[in-house]
């Protein structure tokens, strides 16, 4: 498997106009520079149409934002894990709050990602779903309370108990799973708080994507580690 | 709008292992060469993760295999028409047999594609659905009986009535819509039959993607025009 | 087919707490009484779990709120047209704004409903979707602009052009289709306006379901005819 | 909560023609008689449209085959847990192999079912999904390998390890969850084997629904306990 060194900052660029095409590439370049300058791992999740393009143009690890459980073959317009791999992905988000998946499909996608050497990051919404996710053995779980996503109010401050509660239950069930947190993260201070709660990093989006100077925000974020 | 000159051969590479990543690029290069050599328009529909990569590397028009009706913004892992455009797409399939869409969403996606200058190709499965599609005013309708897809038995021979019936009903309702046909097309003779039935071209996949020599198949296909 | 006499008032009770179980039965009884007293056809669309129960207890025609395109057999928890028929339904809504369906599935469900003798009422959201729907040959089309649903602002006043535009395009494509309108209807005056625009009746929900005296509202509604 | 006494035989009548409307009621009556004669708990899961009708006509506990995660209100054609309760349901299947649900929705539906006093039976497909399910705290988990459903080859013989493995992992994570098994069950011997593996009963469908004499099959099934 592509081993992703932790702590890690995972930047999900979502489907913002500020992250489409060449703008997505510029964000990836910013991640690349910040990793070179800081030594801290950053990962970018490009828009689906941009994954291969960005993976060919940068050295920053690219994760798919989403993969679909379809068989290789006649599956027009679906995003297969094998295709993500062939396009240059090193991993994938699974079950993001904006793209929820069926329980049985999550299980199958985690297994299939592992067979392909793709790092799997399962997104969860509360403590018991994090616990359930741990039983499915993803590489990482990112706990993100949906109500805080995009708010700028960091989960590490607004709801630290959901982070520590998830960490505890996840580790009880499967100690190998790396735990991240997300939702509302936008500063180095937020990252610092997340790390202090015991996580191995953060997953974030708008705080960087919609910033006037994304690289400056990324530099601030890694300073929290 | 990106005007696509007809007659046209549209190659949907689906999610085959033979069309992922660099193999998808090779198929696009073959299309490009065949168009240069023959003067006949070819279009490629790359795998979702490869669209931007292939659009940057070739001059063949790229159509998305599928687009999703989500708002620009927080829409992780969805394939937006705006993102297809930014990645270099000239058009898009809508409602392929392997990725059916809701009626109201098809209507909205056709409208949104037109506003972006993306050529829309609505896929349909029978005469009355083709007629319904015509009322939604896509640029093109590709009639493809699902039971013939991937069989190698061409719709133009197996079920010519569905092609002529669709053509008649579509033109009655909306004379501006260009009609293609698909399913089972793999030879120049199949293309010739499709043109003789009155269509402006074909949509095909496995006949080229899984061929030992895709370029030779493409050359045979354009010879039918 | 169960012929539904027009003009007609179709009451969709949705999933309100005021229409569950015995409360749904009371609404059906109110429809029954109003039809007896006024001679105007009313139809009720019970909650899915209540359809058989209410169909057995009243003489008012019951329409399913929704049916699913699954084969008879191993289809746990899906609502089949054949099951609606066996439970006593006389018809069904298809593609309600709160339960949109795929284009190809709508086509297949209309055909299957007709074969079973179920009256099909296709819900649409704008003029071109109404036109597309006409090509699919349902028994009735109910045009309901989603933005007016539940507002109490009647479509017949807020957007009469969408009603007359739909009527015109539907009749051009398929003169056999009966056209209704819905969204925001709550008084006899609204019904009168809908009839004057050329429709054969209305589809409504909250105006009756959430009323203190549903029968009184129903009596007012039929007075508009 | 409606306490369901174990061991239990849960009959899911699916969407077979043999279980629609009055035929579904006859199956419920057979369950009722068998429980009266044997003292063993049986439960029936009627077709969605029949739930209220059958719950009013029999004393056998009725479980919904499926519930949807929609808010009470404007949710046309969806099957709400509150509506199941109002129609007379004592419980519900969740995530049947033929109606899979999203992970986050399963979590929310289990919580909502408990608040309503509905017994929740979460269906799972393998050991790790059973383990994940246990973390979500349903009342019961029914492990059913999809490849055996409807085959007549009982899971208790074809794949006993999936049953014992699920039991072990479920109990490690949440000892309060009752474990059932299903798929291919059709005789008292199959039930006996399931009980001997440590389960508290079975979930089955076609073995009874499609039998010439459903009551005789039910009597045979309870004889295995």
From TrEMBL, chains A, B, C, D:
Q: Which InterPro entries match?
A: Aldolase_TIM (IPR013785), TIM_sf (IPR035990), Triosephosphate_isomerase (IPR000652), Triosephosphate_isomerase_arc (IPR022891)
Catalysis performed (reactions): D-glyceraldehyde 3-phosphate = dihydroxyacetone phosphate
Localization per Swiss-Prot or TrEMBL: Cytoplasm
- Listed EC numbers: 5.3.1.1
Per the annotation, which location comes first and is thus the protein's main one?
A: cytoplasm
Q: Which domain of life is it from?
A: Archaea
Q: Which UniProt keywords apply?
A: Cytoplasm, Gluconeogenesis, Glycolysis, Isomerase
Per UniProt, substrate binds at 12-14, 149, 184, 205-206
Q: Where is the active site?
A: 96, 144
* Keyword Transport in annotation: no
Q: Which GO terms describe its cellular component?
A: cytoplasm
Recorded GO molecular functions are: triose-phosphate isomerase activity
Q: In which pathway does it act?
A: Carbohydrate biosynthesis; gluconeogenesis; Carbohydrate degradation; glycolysis; D-glyceraldehyde 3-phosphate from glycerone phosphate: step 1/1
Q: State the SUPFAM superfamilies in the record.
A: Triosephosphate isomerase (TIM)
Pfam families in UniProt: TIM
User: In its UniProt record, which GO terms are filed under biological process?
Assistant: gluconeogenesis; glycolytic process
Q: Reply yes or no: does the keyword Isomerase apply.
A: yes
Q: Report the function annotation for this chain.
A: Involved in the gluconeogenesis. Catalyzes stereospecifically the conversion of dihydroxyacetone phosphate (DHAP) to D-glyceraldehyde-3-phosphate (G3P).
Q: How does it assemble?
A: Homotetramer; dimer of dimers.
The UniProt entry, under NCBIfam families, shows: PRK04302.1, tim
Q: What is this protein called?
A: Triosephosphate isomerase
Which species does this protein come from? Candidatus Syntropharchaeum caldarium
**Name of the gene encoding the protein in the UniProt record:** tpiA
